[in-house]
Design goal:
170 residues; Arc Repressor Mutant, subunit A; three-stranded mixed beta sheet; two-stranded antiparallel ribbon; 45% helix; binds zinc ion
């Protein structure tokens, strides 16, 4: 079986997003089974909702969506589901915008590093293992113990840049 993990992530460009959702859900089911943890209906639905696009979703947006679908959407239920998904590495929390996004490579433990487009609000998870190593080196030099190292880099994606150029010249 070839793994999707080796392919570049596809936020910021035209792609079949259903493929992202299918592959994320299949990976989640597989990992939970392997680890002997339960992907309950609410956990699964929260993960699907987070994956509905590459725009990270806040807990309150999720609460609203689940309430519409008739789930028991009491905040503690959803926070527990989000905590579970985060703990299993299936989603990342983006602290700067207080929102959650699906992880593209949940089988391998890693810190989340993201490009966030300020225009379309999509997040692209990037592979920065070399950056992570140099951060760990500097932390070691200073005797600093890193608790959390999610990195969120804001900017403008190529699609939005070309849209803005067309608007400026049109
Ligand atoms: Zn996608
Ligand atoms: Zn990830
Ligand atoms: Zn954009």
């Amino acid at each position: 079986m070839t793994s999707d993990a080796t392919q570049p992530t596809t936020a910021f460009c035209q792609h079949d997003h259903n493929h992202c959702i299918d592959s994320a859900m299949a990976q989640a089911r597989h990992l939970c089974q392997q680890r002997g943890v339960r992907l309950t209906p609410i956990r699964q639905r929260v993960l699907e909702l987070v994956w509905q696009s590459h725009q990270p979703l806040g807990a309150y947006t999720l609460l609203g969506l689940l309430a519409e679908e008739g789930f028991n959407s009491a905040p503690p239920t959803i926070y527990r589901a989000l905590e579970f998904l985060q703990h299993e590495g299936l989603i990342h929390k983006l602290a700067s915008i207080n929102a959650f996004t699906g992880c593209c490579n949940p089988g391998t433990p890693h810190e989340g590093h993201f490009f966030l487009c300020l225009s379309c609000h999509q997040a692209l998870e990037i592979d920065t293992s070399t950056l992570q190593h140099s951060l760990q080196n500097s932390a070691g030099k200073h005797g600093f113990s890193i608790a959390q190292q999610t990195i969120e880099i804001t900017g403008c994606c190529a699609q939005c840049q070309s849209k803005q150029n067309t608007e400026n010249h049109g």
